Amino acid sequence: MKLNLRIWRQKSPLDKGRFEEYALDNVSEDSSFLEMLDLLCEQLVAEGKEALAFDHDCREGICGMCALTINGIPHGPEKQTTTCQLHMRHFKDGETITVEPWRAKPLPVIKDLVVDRSPFDRIIQSGGFISARTGSAVDANAVPIPKQTADTAMDAAACIGCGACVAACPNASAMLFTAAKVSHMNNLPQGEVEKDRRTLAMVTTMDGEGFGGCTNVGECEAVCPKGISLDMIAQLNRDYTSAQVKNFFEPVS
Amino acid sequence: MVLFCSFFNSTIGRKVLMAVTGLVLVLFVMGHMLGNLQIFLGAEVINAYAYKLHHVLPTPALWGIRLFLLLCVGVHVWMAVLLTLASRRARPAGYAVKRVVQATYAARTMRMSGIILLAFIFFHLAHFTTRSVPGMEYNDERVLSPNEVSLVKHGQAVMKDGEKVTTFNVHDMMVAGFENGLVSAFYILATGLLCLHLVHGVSSMFQTLGLRNATWLPRLNYIARFYGWAVFLGFAIIPIAVLTGVLEKDPTGGETQAIETSATH
Ligand code: HEM
Ligand code: FES
After folding, report:
1. Reported ipTM exceeds the 0.85 cut
2. Which of A97, B17, B200, B263 could serve as a FRET partner for B161 with CA atoms 20 to 30 Å apart?
3. Hey, where are the domains in chain B?
4. Do B90 and A215 make contact, defined as CB atoms within 8 angstroms?
């Protein structure tokens, strides 16, 4: 395939940044989007130009590092697919493809297409853990958990923290991410003990990082490579409100 | 305690306030619409309804309700402004290319429909509640037939202490109001936008309150669509009926008896 690439280049967080156009030839339809960018980097280096910076790690859709807005959609046009799992056969020969980083104030560009996602780490640090000592791993059936509950927690735990939800949201809200991380633990008996404290802390951290509020438009769910649903946000709203009410009568510590 | 104050400073708490005030307004709007539709039952019915609204409850209670509704609008708008500003701050630089995947038109235009609704609410209160729009005071003969008409029950004037009870001719005020094409157009446009606002809002408020899941989402979306359209048709049909001549002024206020007696005098 022949491609015309329009890619965001930005030297540093302080650089203003701009789009640059590159022509790329001989791209296999079977290559992934990231492999296509590897080809571009080789071409750039051969021309004596600076290679393109973009995040990636596992390249098998499980780590959440890859993060590109492709033709206006985070992770590109395929449903429930990370950028690394997106293949070039979904594009047309001769197509112009626009590639941009996530756009959100709390996730600033570090270089080119790489953004700083440490606000996510801070949200998790504030409550995404279980303090009870659990010792060494117990048998899986030692704590009976209903199948439906385990499934819900598992669906939430599928979040890989890529940030596509923030990127797609018209408000740059991190509600889907936070909701997944909160639901994942609040639903399980081990995590339920600290449910209220966790929910209050993680939402407070989320707001403090400067993300926008949720308007229930559902773009996050639509682009999430793991199919995390808006149900998680409904549960977060419910858990947060009830934690605030409980906290009003008896401070949650 | 400190954290509870933080509830209304949090994005979720603010959205909960919007949902609760939105719910109050949603229920009020349905009652208001059903009240208005009584205009099709004749001048005496809608005039008696308006009379009851003003006289059944003591005046302070009436003002209490009015202020409560205004407070709801105020809080709703104030939270909308705060959340909108926070969203703007969270994305100072936009995308060169942005494609919408599944968000509905109604959901994406809540702020637009809301702002025009606010302008409409101001106009509507000035128009029909305080009657202070220049040229539309509905209090003199030029604008309208005598606006003090008898309170009518079953075609006969209601008497109290040997005198007729009079009331404001709400029926003719509405008809006169909507005979102005521009005014009617604005009312129809505003109720159309209200429909748009509710098609997203009525379902969204359940999500905000945490009362929605994948099973209920399609049902609530259906209810919201039905509710929005019902409100639009119920409100818009009145200006349409006036413009098409289905509804006409009735200077007697529906008092058939009065015409006969005044004719014999
Ligand atoms: C007065 C001007 C108004 C403005 C500026 C306004 C603005 C807004 C905005 C910005 C939202 C949030 C949208 C979102 O988060 O997706 C909203 C939600 C809502 N509005 Fe309004 N609105 C107004 C009037 C009304 C009226 C008159 C009603 C009802 C009759 C209403 C009912 C609702 C409902 C039910 C919601 C959903 C709340 C939620 O998502 O939790 N609004 N409004
Ligand atoms: S690189 Fe790991 S998910 Fe894409």
Report:
1. yes
2. B263
3. 2-86+104-264
4. no
